[in-house]
């Protein structure tokens, strides 16, 4: 484990990089990419076979070597972000369940694999929009005492989207075990949880997965719902992810010498573009326009940004907010989006530093 | 002109319905649909011909009768909303240019016409994604002293989208003159300005329209840019529209009898879904979940919502906010999105009433 990783939970192993390391490269190295495990990390052989079945699909199995041989190999650059990223900001408002993620439960990688759509076509799956594709992982998950294999699903329409991959490589390297080796799903634009790791089975169904992760977890509820009162047939299944931005450098609590400082971070709008990023050096009273550091090709990457500023001595309060290409801005306060499971914190991000 | 329309400008004629009338029906009647003219309303004959030309297109013209005869007739239900809707909320923060729209510069209609894509195919237009389709209207527009025919453009990719129509009817009736008779463009999901009325010419170009409406208007700038300092080659061209919601009934300033009241309004998220609408009866301290009144088929409609509540006597402060299906909420304050032209106010909407 890299020294730049902060462990959020030893078992299951969950960790995120320190913010300054997160933002150093456009593509996040595997050993700095956040790890969100829901159970012990499985150890699967390279010749592991994935079962495929379900509605109008003849039960079969396929190996990674067969996927590579039968289908065109594709590369997609995409952010994966945990639905609980920035949960600590919501925990300032009130207690939530879940690991205390700071701003690092996100990473941007180049994924290599084959289109899920190509496999679905090859096995004769229907493309009817009322169907779901369900994924099972080799990891065993305990959701509120219910132990079952990890399972999630996505709607057939999304499953057929050209950038949804069955991936065996990340930034040109074989997937590390903690990132889903030997084969994982990558669903660009969706919360990380849908990108199932350690795939063991792919099944076409006419209902979403009934596995606890899909059915009783990763849903967004209003603030007046608690874990005790939640009706899991209600709530918003967290798929598409909202606009977000964070300051990665300087880090909160850092001491800096007076003078010039480069403020850096990320912003992400997924299927939309980030149209601008604004940084305040005085707690939100005035705003400056940050510059984009990247000019990504595809639509699923993050945009790193930077602003060069001079900070006077004393305690300084930095804030970032982004706007997307529909002119949509981020809500200011975490209070306005608090939910008991601590999902989807998109409030303006604040960093306090001491300039000496 | 309906007595339920509030004139915002006599010349060019701009008007919006009173909020309570706006929300009575899922489909907004033509005579209650906001009118945003940029010049005098043209009077074109029914046999008016529209020129078609540009890159790799043989110059030609087509009548509405020919469009109906040659291409399949399509119907799309879609909101059109002025980019300046709710400008009055931004004007509470600071002066802006533009007409003082309240919450009524929006309407939801069923549009009938043919796909723009079908016409583009028929005239041999390329579908290259670096091209633009430019539209000219019969209306003469004065933008900061520059008088020219109304002109806008959309990217070829959007122009080819199946729901973009050349429309001659609204809610099953021929287009009224103020809504663009005999033929207008309808670009679902985009600011109303792109849905050019009184079409005279359609042209494929490799640049956006150079008409003043496209080039020097309808762009979103940060708060520190003024009309004097604006660099019109910069700024965000307002196309896709953001999440929004408003309370239409009761209206602001109304007096109500104590007891039960139904609070009603609209919410719109365009290519996303509105996942929930929350109403506060006490200025934003507590929130209740509103019910959706509509279950629209397509993705371009608004969603009307309602909440039955009991209001105590006294001055009461109602607020609405919506969330989309990516969990994205609206920013709370208009201060955080103010811009000199008063575009895209998406702040929580407030209504003050007196309960007697």
TrEMBL record, chains A, B:
<dbReference type="GO" id="GO:0030151">
    <property type="term" value="F:molybdenum ion binding"/>
</dbReference>
<dbReference type="InterPro" id="IPR036374">
    <property type="entry name" value="OxRdtase_Mopterin-bd_sf"/>
</dbReference>
<dbReference type="GO" id="GO:0006790">
    <property type="term" value="P:sulfur compound metabolic process"/>
</dbReference>
<feature type="domain" description="Moybdenum cofactor oxidoreductase dimerisation">
    <location>
        <begin position="237"/>
        <end position="354"/>
    </location>
</feature>
<dbReference type="GO" id="GO:0043546">
    <property type="term" value="F:molybdopterin cofactor binding"/>
</dbReference>
<keyword id="KW-0479">Metal-binding</keyword>
<protein>
    <submittedName>
        <fullName>Molybdopterin oxidoreductase</fullName>
    </submittedName>
</protein>
<dbReference type="GO" id="GO:0020037">
    <property type="term" value="F:heme binding"/>
</dbReference>
<dbReference type="InterPro" id="IPR014756">
    <property type="entry name" value="Ig_E-set"/>
</dbReference>
<dbReference type="InterPro" id="IPR008335">
    <property type="entry name" value="Mopterin_OxRdtase_euk"/>
</dbReference>
<keyword id="KW-0560">Oxidoreductase</keyword>
<feature type="domain" description="Oxidoreductase molybdopterin-binding">
    <location>
        <begin position="38"/>
        <end position="211"/>
    </location>
</feature>
<keyword id="KW-0614">Plasmid</keyword>
<dbReference type="InterPro" id="IPR000572">
    <property type="entry name" value="OxRdtase_Mopterin-bd_dom"/>
</dbReference>
<dbReference type="GO" id="GO:0008482">
    <property type="term" value="F:sulfite oxidase activity"/>
</dbReference>
<dbReference type="Pfam" id="PF00174">
    <property type="entry name" value="Oxidored_molyb"/>
</dbReference>
<dbReference type="InterPro" id="IPR005066">
    <property type="entry name" value="MoCF_OxRdtse_dimer"/>
</dbReference>
<keyword id="KW-0500">Molybdenum</keyword>
<dbReference type="Pfam" id="PF03404">
    <property type="entry name" value="Mo-co_dimer"/>
</dbReference>
């Amino acid at each position: 484990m890299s020294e730049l990783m902060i462990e959020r939970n030893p078992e299951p192993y969950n960790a995120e990089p320190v913010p300054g390391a997160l933002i150093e490269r456009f593509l996040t190295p595997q050993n700095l990419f956040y790890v969100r495990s829901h159970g012990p990390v499985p150890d699967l052989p390279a010749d592991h076979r994935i079962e495929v079945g379900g509605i109008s699909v003849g039960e079969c199995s396929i190996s990674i070597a067969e996927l590579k041989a039968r289908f065109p190999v594709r590369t997609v650059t995409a952010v994966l972000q945990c639905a609980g990223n920035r949960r600590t900001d919501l925990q300032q408002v009130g207690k939530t369940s879940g690991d205390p993620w700071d701003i690092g439960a996100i990473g941007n990688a180049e994924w290599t694999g084959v289109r899920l759509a190509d496999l679905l076509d090859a096995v004769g799956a229907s493309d009817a929009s009322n169907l779901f594709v369900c994924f099972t992982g080799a990891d065993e998950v305990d959701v509120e005492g219910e132990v079952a294999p990890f399972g999630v699903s996505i709607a057939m329409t999304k499953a057929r989207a050209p950038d949804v991959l069955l991936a065996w490589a990340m930034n040109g390297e074989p997937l590390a075990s903690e990132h889903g080796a030997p084969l994982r799903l990558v669903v660009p634009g969706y919360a990380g949880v849908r990108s199932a790791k350690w795939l063991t089975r792919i099944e076409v169904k006419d209902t979403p997965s009934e596995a606890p992760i899909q059915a009783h977890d990763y849903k967004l509820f209003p603030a007046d719902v608690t874990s005790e009162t939640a009706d899991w047939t209600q709530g918003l299944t967290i798929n598409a992810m909202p606009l977000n931005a964070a300051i990665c450098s300087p880090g909160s609590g850092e001491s800096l010498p007076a003078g010039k400082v480069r403020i850096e971070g990320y912003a992400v709008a997924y299927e939309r573009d980030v149209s601008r990023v604004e940084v305040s050096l005085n707690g939100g009273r005035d705003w400056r326009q940050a510059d984009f550091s990247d000019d990504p090709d595809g639509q699923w990457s993050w945009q790193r940004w930077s602003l060069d500023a001079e900070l006077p001595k004393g305690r300084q309060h930095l804030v970032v907010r982004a706007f997307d290409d529909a002119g949509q801005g981020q809500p200011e306060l975490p209070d306005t989006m608090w939910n008991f499971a601590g999902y989807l914190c998109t409030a303006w991000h604040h960093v306090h530093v001491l300039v000496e």
